[in-house]
Amino acid sequence: MGFKKVFWTLILISTFAINLQADYRDAYSMFFFNRAPSSRAIALGNCYIAVEGDLDSYFFNPAGLANLDEMSVKYSYSSPLYVLDEANYNQVSFGYNFYQNFAGSINYNILSYGEQEITDEEGNTTDGVDSYTSNVNITIANAISKDFSVGAGINYFTENYSTNANTAFFLDIGTIYKPSTNIFKDFTFGASIKNITFSIVDYDSSEEELPVILKIGASNTFTPNLPQQIFEITTMAEYQHVLNYEYRRGLNFGLEFGLAEMFYLRTGYYSHTINDYDFDDNKEQLTELTYGFGVKLPLEEYVNFPIELQVDYANLPHPEYYDESNYSEIDNFNTLTIKLVWNQLSK
Predict the structure, then answer these.
(1) pLDDT in tens, 288-324
(2) Would you call 30 helix, strand, or coil by DSSP?
(3) Domain extents for the chain?
(4) What CA–CA distance (Å, rounded) separates 196 from 18?
(5) For 2-346, CATH number?
(6) CB 94 within 8 A of CB 69
(7) Across the chain, where does the E strand assignment appear?
(8) pTM confidence score
(9) What is the CA radius of gyration of the chain?
(10) Fewest beta carbons less than 10 Å away: which of 9, 102, 192, 197?
């Protein structure tokens, strides 16, 4: 209990300190807010702060990695990005439960905008450059007790819109708490801060802050008391607060229905304040309904090894930032995630 108090005290102190450094200007918003390395998370409205034992937790709450299965690998792909048909989002991860209650992962995600033309000082078009935003992440998590986990992730962020790449390191921290009392035994509570180091990206003559994102939330899983687990329902809710910005704050909700531990239907909803930049046609509130599905296929009987294939998919309209627009003429973005999970630990 003493460690828990110390951890939460550090989060509160960090929150206060970061609020004194409020100068984020919505940079890299497509990378941090409009895309996620998980079809499941996207379908659930990016409400993922209180999910544990999942390889994708590194992006939302590093503590969720603590109860990871023995080994997991995954790949996620998403495209297009509004009118940029060649733009795509790719992500790969490898996670391993390497020592008792310790687990770690190596993750790489890249949002590519396609080839962009570069104009010189005289207005002449030069060779195109593949512009992108990427991040390399290493996350470590530990289940300190059966009801409390902590995690941290170090990130190497790269932005390349021209011939020169600009980089920054930043740190994420998180915690997950599962009460053992009967009243809350089906609940999971989570909190995290992305970029607790309030890092910046330096340019030749300027700099841009990275967003410092605080998330606090909970999830509840209902499983009927039946001889066989026919279905389960998981509900999720979280609050998002960008500490160095007066916008991008709001609520995320998620609902997942699982049937026979194999088939999953998902939906979500989020509502965030956004900067309208004093234009009448720009929205002040971004609200979206999300949805998707997934399947889990045990392959042990075919390969004689405790392995499971997970496939998740979401097909959604792009978030609409303007009151009057032609978003209906823009193709939906598709997100597909494929994951292989080895679970020798439970054998």
Answers:
(1) 999 999 999 988 777 777 899 999 999 999 888 887 6
(2) helix
(3) 2-346
(4) 8
(5) 2.40.160.40
(6) no
(7) 71-79, 88-99, 102-119, 125-145, 148-160, 166-177, 187-194, 200-202, 207-209, 213-222, 231-242, 250-259, 263-273, 285-298, 307-316, 333-342
(8) 0.89
(9) 21
(10) 9
